[in-house]
Amino acid sequence: MADVQKKLIVVLGATGNQGGAVARRFLQDPQYAVRGLTRNVSSPAAQALRELGAEVVAAELDDVESLKKAFKGANLIFSVTQYWEPFFRPDCRAKAEELGITCRKYAYDVEVQQGKNIADAAATVVDTLVDNGFLVSTLSNARKCSKGKFQDLYHFDSKADVFPDYVVPKYPELAAKMSCIHTGFFTTSHNILPDSYFAKQSDGSFQMRFPCNPDKLIPQLDVNRDTGNFVYAVSQMPPGKAYMAGEYLSFRDWAAAWGRVTGATIEYKEVTIDEMVAETPDKACGLEVALMYSYSSDPGYDGGMELLTAEDIQKAGIDCPITTVEESLAKQDFSKFFSK
């Protein structure tokens, strides 16, 4: 059981990228007890977290009652929801076909409902939460920020439609204790989209190909190294603010950094949405991410919102280290891209 002398933070997705990073960071502070939530408490990741000192309990995002039980006694909650898990699952794709909707829309519906379940459960423990005790991972609302241009950038709106748009009107007391943490492009996204990041050319050089302005500044995040530090820093800030985690860097400069790290020759080429979809094996995935890159050009990945950054947190006197893109790339193994 959690030590009653400590503040208890409940971390959703504690065996995943974001949640795992947050759990590990708070475990470093003896002021906190960490309760990590996961579907499979017997997994190696769950066991590793337990060995670090966390309490690991089972909870289902589709089950509000299991979340209410898991949130009991929480002083802080870190919330993260998942679009891509139902998006790629074969059974979910079969269900989407049965319902006559795209797998993209189906994953949106799943994530929205799970987000609402988290909010509904968190509202039951609002009295035990500290002033800045509801820390939520989210993204900008593409539909609103683009003034209707992007109607179906589902994995953005599935987060924003709940955090903050569902929470604020329905649970004002919870919203008053909420901080919205937007996460930048993961610096490991090339593992999912290798042909778009590193298309090998006949002369041995590489080409990065996205439907995004090459010079647009875009937040880039080393999710495993920096999410924990960032959320930990945000927890020390006043509530009710919105943040962007990551280093702002253009894709042209991202490519140049990769070239310096690997010694390879690479250029950035802006392509159309249709071209990116055609070059992505999974066409539904290609469309969803192509829309994201296009949105990142205008109005921008952050939706043109004024979001606080690590630099702003630092100016407030709170330590908030951020790994640069080049530092993140230097720690990765790219040998497989050269052996093709």
Automatic annotation (TrEMBL):
Domain of life according to the entry: Eukaryota
UniProt cross-references to InterPro entries, sorted A to Z: NAD(P)-bd_dom_sf, NmrA-like, NmrA-like_oxidored
Keywords of this entry: NADP
Pfam families, per database record: NmrA
Keyword NADP: yes
Residues of the NmrA-like domain: 5-316
Database matches in Gene3D superfamilies: NAD(P)-binding Rossmann-like Domain, UDP-galactose 4-epimerase, domain 1
Similarity comment: family membership: Belongs to the NmrA-type oxidoreductase family.
Protein name per the record: NmrA-like domain-containing protein
